[in-house]
Design goal:
By secondary structure, the chain is an all-beta fold. Helices cover 0% and strands 52% of the residues. It has strands spanning 2-7, 10-13, 18-26, 33-39, 46-52, 58-60, 68-73, 78-83, 92-99, 113-114, 118-123. Strands 2, 4, 5, 6, 9, 10 and 11 form a 7-stranded mixed β-sheet that branches. A 4-stranded antiparallel β-sheet has the order 1-3-8-7, with no helix packed on it. The radius of gyration is 14 Å and the shape is globular.
Amino acid sequence: QVQLVESGGGLVQAGDSLRLSCAASGRPFSTYAMGWFRQAPGKEREFVAAITWSSGYTYYADFVEGRFTISRDNAKNTMYLQMNSLKPEDTAVYYCAARIIVGVLTQIAGYDYWGRGTQVTVSS
């Protein structure tokens, strides 16, 4: 079984930064890409960013507007999300996910493994 564990969430003020981490462990698996999603109270889960594991190609949701940077450390099986200039509307539970098969990075259904999430709260 594959486990994904997020960390790094917390309570910050608008304009602050946070760095989320997602560590993968368990049985070895071939990863095509990993991504970050978020879900705010009363809203659907939405795509934030994704990175392909071998080439490092990155893709972001429009609302990121250059504030977030996704990266990965292949040797550590860890993915990161550096979030700068945080806004109150960024408040959500952030989930990391991994997908094995090539496909559209923004589609939730294509991801095979999910973490339990880490809470990010941005106060105004």
